Amino acid sequence: MIEPCGYQYVYFLLRSDHLPAREMAAQLGMEPDESSVKGSKRESPPVPAVHSWRVVCRDSGLTVDEQVDRILDRLEPIADRIAALVRVIDESEGEGLTSTLQVVRYLNDEDGDQHQRLGWHLDRRALEFLHQTGAELDVDEYGDD
């Protein structure tokens, strides 16, 4: 699927093989913007492959930096609870990709020109949050080629 020119969004994801999103929400004291239930689309092999809890920023016209800030504004107050939940999941399921800050960008341009918002960075606040919550950063960028 080709997205509109310059479409991008950011989300923070918690995932687990065994702990459903509703349980994650209960432990965090925060409902997700989006969630998935392991095996809800297909049981074997399961699709989705894991349970997930997500907080998402799809606000258009913002830079990646600004979208990350919007996510952090919402999650920093519960960062200690996120970190504790990540530790519990990692201890019971083995360390893995339990928490991730995901950046998704579609860099298509109708005229074939380079996208205007190519540069972005993570400031100290974002890096400290990622470290505190044991999160990884994953960036997916797509273009026409």
Would you kindly provide a written description of the structure presented here, covering whatever features stand out?
It is a single chain. The chain has a 5-stranded mixed sheet. With 145 residues, the protein is of the alpha+beta class. Helices cover 31% and strands 23% of the residues. It starts with 7 loop residues before the first strand and ends with a strand. The chain has 4 helices and 5 strands, in the order βαββααβαβ. The chain is globular and about 40 Å long.
List keywords for this structure.
31% helix; alpha+beta
Offer a concise description of the structure.
The protein is α+β, with helices and mostly antiparallel strands and 145 residues long. The protein has four helices and five strands, in the order βαββααβαβ.
